[in-house]
């Protein structure tokens, strides 16, 4: 898997333009093209994130052309597209255009904290992931990009759980690491008896000794599995490290991401269909709500 085309939806706000340094980085890293996209939103407010809202196709086209002139250097292929028919569902419009244009990566920004941030994560990025099949890089900018600001990928946090369909989703992260020379840190989370949920929690209460022993064995197996994965990645010329965590998956991964400050965390998600302990959409959303690390969200079907 490689990146040949990047899709950057922009809402006209300064904060949304924080996607551009990442877009330029991946375009230059892979020799990829960039498609800038704007949706005319139906019944939109006058302002979005303190910036004047773009309310018609003409000013949106001018905005995208100006964005190219300000940010995109010569030598990078870039296209602009404005969805001129007013849309009520921005996420659906992004998914439909991604299905038509077939990009390899969508780059989105989440703005703000609390309710606004949760709304954007839940209703834009998560909907794009759950409805579509294209990986999404979600950024958490605190301010508009500064002149000369650059994005770089020097270290990647890659959670792995040993399930084959999930491991296939790591291919894009590994390709990015190969191209960028980034260090890959592998992690897996084995629950403790008190952090089990659902039927497993009920079983743990009925059979506490057996459950604790089974989880200890799972921790040992996870360590061996990650060691094998490290050897595989080293065979690809990558620098790697690994650790097994114990506890609630979302909490432990978020704490690890905040402590390590990697340039990117990779999270697989089943979207609406997910139900497993780690790759469940709610776990991914909980991790996203606790970190500012750029997150590469990869659909797992």
Largest β-sheet summary: 10 strands, mixed
Taken together, the total number of domains comes to 2
Question: Helices and strands, in N-to-C order?
Answer: EHEEEHEHEHEEHHEHHEHEHE
CATH topology of the largest domain: Rossmann fold
Binned, the helix content reads 40-55%
List keywords for this structure.
Rossmann fold; single chain; alpha/beta; 301 residues; globular; 10 helices
Structure explained in plain terms:
This protein is an alpha/beta fold and 301 residues long. The chain has 2 domains: 5-139, HUPs (Rossmann fold), CATH 3.40.50; 155-299, 3-Layer(aba) Sandwich (Rossmann fold), CATH 3.40.50.620. The chain is built from 10 helices and 12 strands. It is globular and about 65 Å long. The two termini are 17 Å apart. Mean pLDDT is 82; it is low at 112-122 and 272-281.
SSE layout:
Elements: E1 5-9, H1 19-30, E2 33-41, E3 47-48, E4 51-52, H2 57-71, E5 78-87, H3 90-101, E6 105-109, H4 114-131, E7 136-139, E8 155-159, H5 164-168, H6 171-180, E9 183-190, H7 198-206, H8 208-235, E10 240-246, H9 249-260, E11 264-269, H10 281-288, E12 295-299
Parallel strand pairs: 1-2, 1-6, 2-5, 6-7, 8-9, 8-11, 9-10, 11-12
Antiparallel strand pairs: 3-4, 7-12
């Amino acid at each position: 898997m490689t990146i040949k085309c990047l899709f950057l939806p922009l809402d006209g706000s300064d904060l949304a333009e924080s996607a551009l340094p990442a877009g330029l980085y991946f375009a230059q890293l892979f020799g990829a093209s960039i498609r800038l996209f704007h949706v005319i939103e139906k019944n939109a407010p006058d302002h979005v994130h303190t910036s004047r809202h773009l309310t018609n196709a003409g000013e949106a086209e001018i905005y995208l052309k100006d964005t190219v002139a300000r940010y995109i250097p010569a030598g990078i292929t870039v296209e602009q597209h404005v969805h001129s028919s007013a849309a009520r569902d921005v996420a659906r419009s992004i998914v439909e255009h991604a299905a038509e244009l077939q990009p390899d990566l969508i780059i989105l920004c989440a703005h703000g904290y609390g309710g606004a941030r949760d709304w954007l994560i839940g209703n834009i990025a998560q909907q794009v992931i759950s409805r579509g099949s294209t990986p999404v890089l979600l950024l958490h900018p605190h301010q508009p990009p500064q002149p000369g600001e650059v994005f770089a990928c020097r270290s990647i946090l890659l959670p792995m759980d040993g399930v084959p369909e999930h491991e296939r989703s790591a291919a894009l992260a590994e390709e990015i690491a190969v191209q960028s020379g980034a260090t890959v840190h592998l992690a897996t989370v084995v629950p403790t008896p008190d952090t089990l949920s659902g039927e497993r929690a009920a079983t743990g209460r009925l059979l506490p000794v057996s459950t604790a022993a089974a989880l200890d064995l799972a921790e040992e197996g996870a360590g061996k599995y990650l060691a094998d994965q490290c050897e595989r990645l080293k065979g690809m010329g990558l620098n790697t490290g690994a650790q097994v965590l114990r506890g609630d998956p979302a909490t432990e991964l978020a704490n690890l991401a905040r402590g390590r400050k990697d340039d990117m965390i990779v999270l697989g998600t089943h979207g609406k269909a997910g139900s497993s302990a780690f790759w469940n959409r709610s776990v991914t959303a909980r991790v996203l709500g606790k970190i500012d690390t750029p997150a590469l969200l990869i659909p797992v079907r």
